[in-house]
Amino acid sequence: MDVGAGLGAIAFWGFLAICVWAGIWDSIRRREAKHETLRRLIESGQPIDERIMDKLLGGTNDMDRDLKVGELVTLSVAPGLAIMAWFISQIAPQALLPMLGASILLAFIGGGLLLAAKAIEKASRDSGDASRGLGRT
Q1: Which terminus, N or C, of the chain has the lesser number of Cβ atoms within 10 Å?
Q2: What is the DSSP secondary-structure string of 61-108?
Q3: Together in a domain, 47 and 90
Q4: Which of 133, 121, 123, 125 is nearest to 55 (CA)?
Q5: 38 shares its domain with 76
Q6: Are residues 28 and 68 in the same domain?
Q7: pLDDT digit string (tens) for 68-111?
Q8: Which domain holds residue 103?
Q9: Judgement on whether residues 43 and 90 belong to the same structural domain of the protein
Q10: Same domain for 137 and 76?
C-alpha cells in the first residue's frame, strides 16, 4: 500500500470539503449581513423602496440571461473537448469516440439551454410579467 497516494487522496478530498464549507459559510454570512442592513433600515424608520429591497434580498432574476450564459459556456467547452479528444487519441486511440460523444452531449446540453432561455424570454414577453424579473434584456 502506497502511503503517499493515500495522503494525496486525503489532502484532495479535504481541500474539496474545505472549499465547499467556505462557500456555504460565505453565503450564510452575506445573507446575514443583508438581513442586518434591512433590519437597521426598518428600525431607523427610513422609507424602503422596492429597488433597495430587491438589491438586498436578491429579488430580481434574469433567468433567460443566466441560461444564455450557461449555454455560451457549455457550447464553448464542447469544441474544446472535441479537440482534446483528437490530441488524446494520438496516445490512446480508443478514447476518441467516447470523448467525441461527450463533446456532442455538451453541444446538445448547450442547445437545450438556449431553447430554455428563448422559451422563458417568450413567455415573459407574452405575459408581460415584469414583477418577477424573468426574461428582461
Answers
A1: N
A2: --HHHHHHHHHHHHHHHHHHHHHHHHHHHTT-GGGHHHHHHHHHHHHH
A3: no
A4: 133
A5: no
A6: no
A7: 888 999 999 999 999 999 999 999 999 999 999 999 999 999 99
A8: 61-137
A9: no
A10: yes
Joined grid coordinates for residue 109: 446540453
Q: What is the DSSP letter of 26?
A: H
User: Within this chain, do residues 66 and 51 fall inside the same structural domain, yes or no?
Assistant: no
**Who contacts 51 (Cβ-Cβ below 8 Å, separation ≥6)?**
none
Domain total in the chain: 2
Both 55 and 69 in a single domain?
A: no
* pTM tops 0.70, yes or no: no
Alpha-carbon radius of gyration of the chain:
23
- Helices 96-127 and 63-89 pack at an angle, to 10 degrees, of 170
Burial of residue 41 (number of CB atoms within 10 Å: 0-12, 13-18, 19+)? middle
CB 77 within 8 A of CB 109: no
Q: What is the pLDDT of residues 49-69, one digit of tens each?
A: 777 777 777 655 678 888 888
Asked if 81 and 98 touch (Cβ cutoff 8 Å), the reply is no
115 and 131, same structural domain?
yes
